[in-house]
């Protein structure tokens, strides 16, 4: 092959990233190799820094660079609300909206009989302990609207309903969404949850 | 912001890669952070290795890890043919086809009055020197079918026609291509260059 094995190996590794395939990985690597000083070196060092320092928050499962993530370390976020999400990406999406001022709990997955994922694998006992430790009054379930996501939400509701107020994200028409492009399920949910003007 | 600055910075750097934007960079970084030992660390080290060792071949401009790229270092490839390409990506594409057994010359761009790119910037004097040094008999111009690409091809033809046989890649219908999806220019070129069966 023409590419030296070191570069070929880097392309193979980049091609494993979500959103990149062999072609786009090759393009990205050529782009980087043409900018060795300005981009490739700094990117490699930043990656190594993150590889060395990133860790899951021991309390909520968010990704941070310390034992407690910035949210769990911030006393102002202990407002009695906890938002239960499936993934760290979901947590970041909630934070981008910037409205929720409580804390999170990242399950890291959903209950799945097929994949043998039970409550322990998802850290649900830890969540139950946090409800008491952090004097949580409201648990907001922000879980995906998939079968496994809803199974998990029901299970959590069973476990939590005696101890906290339970809420879940509203379902309906997205802001800026056109009815014509929405699936029937979303339209049905939005109609059933209609509100007086 | 929720993301620690180190991770935020890595996402920003990844988002500058071609084919990735802020969203897909975030997704890729989350994917990597969840696989710190298995993927992020090795990828960082491989990137650093490439940053430290990759260099342009001093003869042809291909990317390699030594002063001469594997093709220029291989005496069997000095077969009197030289293929002139615009970019290293084009060179790799030619190599993937696996048919051409000569050497390459990477211009690194095309002549462009607007961008003040002249023959020196493209290493054309080096190419002319190589024609003599390496006893080249045939120069295959594999330049893009853009205005600048064709201007460059004409300029090279002027410079080289007294010394070597000049050829260019055939234009026509791609293998597996359907006429219905081809532009008019390609169909016209393929018709004019039709061959007896």
Automatic annotation (TrEMBL), chains A, B:
SMART domains recorded: TOPRIM
GO biological process: DNA recombination; DNA repair
UniProt-listed Gene3D superfamilies: 3.40.1360.10, RecR Domain 1
Molecular function via GO: DNA binding; zinc ion binding
Residues annotated as domain Toprim: 80-174
Annotated PROSITE patterns: TOPRIM
Zinc finger regions, C4-type: 57-72
Similarity section: Belongs to the RecR family.
Function: May play a role in DNA repair. It seems to be involved in an RecBC-independent recombinational process of DNA repair. It may act with RecF and RecO.
UniProt name for this protein: Recombination protein RecR
Top-level taxonomy: Bacteria, Pseudomonadati, Pseudomonadota, Alphaproteobacteria, Rhodobacterales
């Amino acid at each position: 092959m023409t590419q030296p094995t070191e570069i070929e190996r880097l392309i193979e590794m980049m091609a494993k990233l979500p959103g990149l395939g062999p072609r786009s990985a090759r393009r990205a690597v050529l782009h980087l190799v043409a900018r060795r000083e300005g981009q490739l070196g700094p990117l490699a060092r930043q990656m190594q820094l993150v590889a060395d320092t990133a860790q899951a928050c021991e309390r909520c499962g968010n990704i941070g660079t310390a034992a407690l993530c910035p949210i769990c370390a911030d006393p102002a976020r202990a407002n009695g609300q906890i938002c239960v999400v499936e993934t760290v990406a979901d947590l970041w999406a909630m934070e981008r909206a910037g409205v929720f001022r409580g804390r999170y709990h990242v399950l890291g997955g959903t209950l799945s009989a097929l994949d043998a994922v039970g409550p322990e694998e998802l850290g649900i006992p830890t969540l139950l302990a946090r409800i008491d430790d952090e004097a949580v009054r409201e648990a907001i379930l922000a879980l995906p609207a998939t079968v496994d996501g809803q199974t998990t939400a029901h299970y959590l509701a069973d476990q939590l309903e005696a101890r906290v107020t339970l809420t879940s994200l509203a379902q309906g028409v997205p802001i800026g969404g056109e009815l014509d492009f929405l699936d029937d399920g979303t339209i049905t949910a939005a109609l059933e949850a209609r509100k007086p003007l």
